[in-house]
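Support request from a user on the community tier.

User writes: "When I paste my structure tokens into the form, the page sometimes reloads and wipes my input. The last time it worked, I copied everything first. Here is what I submitted, just in case something in the input itself triggers the reload:"
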């Protein structure tokens, strides 16, 4: 299974909540802003499921660990220690970096050559 499910869900998780709130208001979806926290949790949950399915293919746990760590830091930095503006950036920026590294590392696991010899006919 390709890492598209996990990477796509992480990519949907906003790195800049001010910009996403402004964008949602601009396109007429301002009512979504109060439930954005739950949307973010859902997207992070989907990414964890995607990475867990990817783990079954490449048997490397590090991308999943990096994703969980990064997603936790993103969430805590924004919703627990953060607030309006860029407060909490000291926590969510490293989380965003971990998530990006997890996505790239997970993707690279699928470009490695297989250790199984191919049957020649």
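"...and here is what came back when it finally went through:"
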């Amino acid at each position: 299974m390709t890492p598209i499910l996990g990477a796509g869900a992480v990519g949907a998780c906003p790195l800049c909540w001010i910009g996403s709130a402004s964008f949602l208001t601009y396109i007429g979806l301002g009512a979504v802003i109060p439930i954005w926290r739950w949307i973010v949790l859902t997207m992070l949950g989907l990414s964890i499921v995607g990475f867990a399915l990817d783990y079954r293919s490449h048997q490397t746990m590090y991308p999943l660990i990096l994703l969980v760590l990064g997603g936790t830091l993103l969430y805590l930095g924004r919703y627990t220690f953060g607030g309006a503006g860029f407060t909490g950036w000291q926590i969510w920026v490293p989380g965003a970096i971990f998530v990006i590294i997890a996505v790239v590392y997970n993707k690279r696991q699928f470009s490695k050559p297989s250790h199984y010899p191919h049957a020649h006919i």
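Agent notes: The reload is a front-end session timeout and is unrelated to the input. Residues 58 and 111 are 10 Å apart (CA to CA). The chain has one domain: 4-109. Escalated to web team.
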